[in-house]
């Protein structure tokens, strides 16, 4: 049994793959429908006040999916990633692995890649569901724009799990890692309230799919994309170095 | 020597856990590292296993790091793997993927043949410990490091694990720590005594016991002990003479030669019927307490 197979078994047998995929696919179903019915719901909710909401257009279906799935989906992804990436949370288990590999960084990488790929695959699956639903209830989305948007979102998801990997360099426990990881993921959009940060922040990529399907300019994401790629590699390197040098 | 440490020291902030430890583990031995709680056993084994770094000193292994297997006092495994998968994983990570036949044989030897395909999350403490030993030896390591393998096991579990250690010890070098002296005495041929972070003794177990044999004899009588006690206490070579049980006297001489020369005369003078006279052998506990006391007296803390 290789470490790669072990990590697949970890995701499958602990049902973590179901949790991650379930969240994204669920919002893939709910997002476009909620966008479709939102104007009617708002119209009936007014208590003597008339609220006029413009009819939903096809990109609204993807927007609704994106906003919901990237919040709860990122939360689940952080929890699942932390459960896998905290190599030293349970010392006896850490001893089992650490004394059997040449370098503990090997463990970090073989855990990071599967959990990231599963998160990405879940996001893509959810997007495909949202695309189909949008097409049925709201109208067609340009497939090339959708695919470009998805391609821009995927590095952001890799960054989210890399943040969790980086958090393991600071703390050992799973709960603490979730806290540090989530704190970072939440702080970045808040900091992006400043334009100078937003132009470079990885969290700006979270809106790229929305912008792409609306036909807006996507070259503005080149800065965040570059920072995201560099930060992802940097965080992984930090996690690997710390895994190699940490004492149990 | 398969393992040698030179002036090994480890400091945690203000606490000096190890000081100048020069450990030598002969190849093929079952080496028992004994010491009271907090003596530094786990720290020493962790450094040897490469899990912690020494503050100073060196560890010399006569084998590749991959030929050293480690099992902690309370091993844990992924609860969603079966016992067979855990042992296969351990072998695979060690670079020696076991055949199915070898896996079956190893699990059977560890007493887990019937539980081979059960998830380890439901295993008892004893089963997990035995699984830990199986994972340690599956890669056919040349040195197995076991930290308190019998800690927190019930008597039956201890016997099972000690039997396994003894069996594995016939195939490879085993270094194991324990504060249960009877366990060490049962399976080890070489011992090291760690006290206050210092290696107070190391060498063959037999030599240690011989060095700490006291010149003491146990005499069983048929009749009252009082005449013998009077006769013994009247001599100059007796350090202690007391009735330890009905019709049984224990006498400790100032030294072996004086005891051997004077005991027969004292028995004759007392004129009491004798059932048996036997020397009192030393056990590891006696030796251990002597060493710890000497360490304390020399300001070990």
Provide a brief overview of the structure.
The complex is a heterodimer of chains A (248) and B (301). With 248 residues, chain A is mostly helical.
Instruction: Average the pLDDT over all residues of chain A and give the rounded result.
Output: 92
**How many strands appear in the DSSP assignment of chain A?**
0
Number of helices of chain B: 10
Distance between the termini of chain B: 29 Å
**Name given to the CATH homologous superfamily of the largest domain in chain B:** P-loop containing nucleotide triphosphate hydrolases
Order of helices and strands of chain A: HHHHHHHHHH
How many strand elements of chain B? 14
Largest sheet of chain B: 6 strands, mixed
Strand content of chain A: under 5%
Ends distance of chain A: 25 Å
Quaternary structure of the protein: heterodimer
How confident overall, as mean pLDDT of chain B? Answer: 89
Helix segment count of chain A? 10
Class by SSE composition of chain B: alpha/beta
Helicity level of chain A, as a percent range? over 70%
SSE string of chain B: EEEEHEEHHHEHEHEEHEHEEHEH
Describe the structure.
The complex is a heterodimer of chains A (248) and B (301). Chain A contains ten helices and no strands. Chain A has helices spanning 3-13, 16-45, 58-85, 91-98, 105-137, 143-167, 174-191, 195-198, 208-213, 222-245. Chain A is elongated and about 65 Å long. The mean pLDDT of chain A is 92. Helix content of chain B is 36%, strand content 28%. Chain B folds into two domains: 3-203, 3-Layer(aba) Sandwich (Rossmann fold); 214-281, Alpha-Beta Plaits (2-Layer Sandwich), CATH 3.30.70. Chain B is built from ten helices and 14 strands. In chain B, a hairpin with a 2-residue loop joins β12 and β13 (248-253). The A-B interface holds A 1-3, 6, 9-10, 13-14, 90-93, 95-102, 247-248 and B 46, 49-53, 66, 68-70, 72, 74-78, 80-81, 85, 88-90, 92-94, 135, 139.
């Amino acid at each position: 049994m290789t470490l790669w197979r072990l990590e697949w078994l970890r995701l499958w047998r602990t049902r973590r793959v179901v949790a991650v995929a379930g969240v994204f696919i669920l919002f893939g179903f709910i997002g476009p429908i909620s966008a479709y019915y939102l104007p009617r719901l708002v119209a009936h909710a007014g208590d003597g006040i008339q609220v006029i909401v413009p009819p939903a257009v096809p990109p609204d279906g993807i927007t609704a999916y994106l906003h919901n799935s990237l919040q709860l989906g990122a939360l689940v992804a952080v929890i699942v990633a932390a459960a896998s990436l905290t190599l030293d949370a349970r010392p006896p288990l850490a001893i089992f692995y650490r004394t059997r590999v040449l370098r503990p960084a090997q463990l970090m990488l073989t855990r990071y890649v599967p959990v990231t790929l599963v998160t990405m695959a879940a996001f893509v699956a959810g997007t495909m569901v949202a695309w189909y639903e949008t097409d049925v209830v709201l109208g067609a989305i340009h497939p090339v724009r959708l695919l470009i948007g998805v391609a821009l979102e995927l590095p952001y998801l890799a960054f989210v799990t890399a943040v969790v990997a980086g958090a393991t360099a600071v703390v050992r426990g799973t709960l603490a890692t979730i806290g540090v990881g989530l704190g970072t993921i939440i702080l970045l959009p808040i900091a992006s309230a400043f334009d100078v940060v937003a132009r470079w922040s990885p969290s700006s990529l979270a809106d790229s799919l929305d912008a792409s399907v609306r036909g807006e300019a996507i070259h503005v994401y080149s800065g965040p994309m570059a920072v995201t790629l560099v930060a992802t590699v940097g965080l992984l390197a930090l996690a690997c170095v710390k895994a190699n040098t940490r004492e149990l | 020597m398969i393992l040698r440490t030179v002036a090994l020291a480890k400091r945690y902030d203000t606490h000096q856990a190890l000081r100048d430890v020069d450990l030598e583990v002969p190849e093929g031995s079952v080496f028992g590292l004994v010491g009271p709680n907090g003596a530094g056993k786990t720290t020493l084994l962790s450094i040897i296993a490469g899990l912690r770094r020494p503050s100073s000193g060196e560890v010399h292994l006569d084998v590749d790091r991959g030929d050293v297997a480690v099992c902690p006092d309370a091993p844990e495994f992924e609860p969603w793997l079966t016992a067979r998968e855990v042992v296969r994983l351990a072998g695979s990570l060690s670079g020696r993927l076991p055949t199915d036949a070898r896996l079956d044989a190893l699990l059977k030897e560890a007493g887990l043949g019937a539980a081979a395909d059960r998830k380890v999350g439901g295993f008892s403490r004893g089963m997990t410990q035995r699984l830990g030993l199986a994972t340690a030896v599956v890669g056919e390591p040349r040195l197995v490091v076991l930290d308190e393998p019998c800690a927190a096991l019930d008597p039956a579990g201890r016997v099972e694990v000690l039997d396994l250690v003894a069996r594995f010890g016939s195939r490879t070098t085993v270094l194991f720590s324990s504060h249960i002296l009877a366990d060490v005495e049962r399976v080890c041929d070489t011992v090291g005594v760690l006290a206050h972070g210092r290696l107070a003794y190391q060498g063959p177990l037999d030599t240690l016991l011989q060095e700490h044999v006291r010149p003491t004899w146990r005499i069983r009588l048929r009749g009252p002990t009082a005449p013998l006690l009077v006769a013994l206490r009247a001599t100059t070579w007796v350090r202690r003479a007391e009735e330890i049980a009905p019709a049984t006297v224990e006498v400790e001489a100032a030294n072996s030669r004086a005891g051997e020369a004077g005991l027969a005369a004292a028995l004759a003078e007392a004129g009491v019927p004798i059932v048996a006279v036997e020397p009192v052998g030393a056990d590891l506990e006696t030796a251990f307490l002597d060493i710890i006391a000497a360490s304390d007296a020399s300001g070990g803390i």
